[in-house]
Design brief:
Number of helices: 6
Helix content: 25-40%
Number of strands: 17
Radius of gyration: 18 Å
Strand content: 25-35%
Distance between the termini: 49 Å
CATH topology: Nitrilase/N-carbamoyl-D-aminoacid amidohydrolase
Order of helices and strands: EHEHHEEEEEEEEHEHEEEEEEH
CATH class: Alpha Beta
Largest sheet: 7 strands, mixed
Length: about 270
């Protein structure tokens, strides 16, 4: 009913092989220090904003260098890996933002494609249109493991509370929220959103994040978090890259959900407007 998670906080570059090498070193360090689960952020092995460059660097799943490397490493180290997401090619002109849960035998235990794509225009001219290049997923995912029952999500998904309610009611006791949050939205909303998802669902939140200034010019917020079901922040990694640890005690999920059984109290209702 307990395990140790290591969060890998990265400043991913636009060079796939370099990012894989950095991750390998950090994952080895995490396992040497006792991690049962290692979690990486969104865009673990590629941060590329240019459309043509992203399409040139991405590979289909069966040919992806990063996925093969992480599967081999999980088997070698006998550890669970939550790879926040990899940029995977679907067709010659479309990509998918895909999360992987890899077992200690190196097998893909679960895949999740980001449901909600980041199409926003922020003040100051900062704008993103993820749907111009990426295909959205169409399935929510709960995966059962010997460590925990994980509910999967990626970054912008965190703004859609109904998804997490469904994950929790389907049995998830740990919510995975890898991200590459912008500095502007991170400063305003990151902590509040993640604490709320933990509290309203009586679940742990594990949120590995990108941080700092990336080679493509994008800046990300950092502050990877682990939050318990009562809303207490067990880990805030700040803004530096590195390996960070927290201990997960799933008996607390049971205690909180017994004390505040709101997951059992949802009701259907009629919307009335006057």
């Amino acid at each position: 009913m307990s395990f140790r998670v290591a969060i890998i906080q990265l400043t991913t570059s636009d060079t796939v092989s370099d990012n894989i090498d950095v991750c390998r070193q950090m994952i080895r360090q995490a396992v040497a220090d006792g991690a049962d689960l290692v979690a990486t952020p969104e865009c673990t092995h590629l941060m590329e904003l240019n459309r043509e460059a992203a399409l040139a660097k991405a590979r289909v799943e069966s040919d992806d260098e990063g996925l093969r490397a992480f599967q081999a490493l999980a088997a070698e180290l006998s550890v669970w890996l939550s790879i926040g997401s990899l940029v995977i090619k679907l067709t010659k002109d479309r990509l998918v933002n895909r999360q992987y849960l890899i077992s200690p035998k190196g097998r893909i235990h679960a895949r999740y494609d980001k449901l909600h794509l980041f199409d926003v225009r922020l003040s100051g001219g900062e704008a993103y249109r993820e749907s111009a290049l990426y295909e959205a997923g169409d399935k929510a995912l709960v995966s059962r493991t010997p460590l925990a029952v994980f509910g999967h999500s990626i970054c912008y998904d965190v703004r859609f509370p109904g998804l997490y309610r469904d994950l929790a009611q389907a049995g998830a006791n740990v919510l995975l929220v890898p991200a590459a949050f912008t500095k502007k939205t991170g400063k305003a909303h990151w902590h509040s959103l993640l604490k709320t998802r933990a509290i309203e669902n009586g679940a742990y939140v594990i949120a590995a994040a990108q941080t700092g200034q990336h080679a493509t010019g994008r800046s990300t917020f950092g502050h990877s978090l682990v939050i318990n079901p009562w809303g207490d922040v067990l880990l805030d990694a700040g803004q530096k890259t590195g390996v960070y640890f927290a201990d997960i005690d799933l008996t607390l999920v049971q205690k909180v959900r017994q004390a505040l059984p709101s997951l059992q109290h949802d009701r259907d209702y009629e919307m009335v407007q006057t």
